[in-house]
Amino acid sequence: MRVVVAGATGLIGSRTVARLRDHGVEAVPVSRRYGVNVTTGEGLEEALRGAEVVVDVTDAPARTEEAGLRFFRTATANLLAAAAAAGVEHHVVLSVVGAQRLRSGYFLAKELQEYQVRKSPIPYSIVRAPLSFESLQAIAVADTSPDGVHAAPALVRPVATEDVAAELAHVAMGLPRFGALEMAGPEEYRLDDLMAKLLAANGDARSVVTDAHARLFAAPLGKGSLLPEPGAHTCHTTFSMWLAQR
Fold it and tell me: Could you give the domains of the chain?
């Protein structure tokens, strides 16, 4: 089986390539580093030649609605067109939990990406991942509010990126789902409480300000807007396990 992984030099993409190769799959990494540009289409045709499956873990250069819409509208269309021309039998795309509910910010851009995949004639699977420990840590580090890190009291079931990569590899090796699979971490936290735990684990002395109006990727959050749907696939890596593995 020949599987092309677009966005292969990112954190999740590189681990997805590794998981596929662990299973004996011919995993072909695709990114600008390998001479392929999904936004211009440069190198796509050659990279997808002979591929049976495409796994799309590409991401916008910024987690804003404008940047996301601009990127996914073009990059996803290019990938799907090249996949159709190459006779790809299964298109797997990584999305986010909340894409179908949060109608603003980066989540709206991911919903657009899902729509493009669903409308394509290529058999597909959508994997919706919740926030990862790694992404939450990056959000906390990037927060420059003078009075502390602002976070909403929304509920989350975070996962490790290693679990996301393993699930993507598993889905890629299976039959197309013609729908979405949602993932969930084994533990549920309030976002503000988890941010405080992450800061403490990193030796960051900043406090966390519980702010019901705090947004995530420019989207307002309700209490359950970041929770997966019932029946989501539960991963195994807990917060304490993730800390120990870092």
Answer: 2-245 (3.40.50.720)
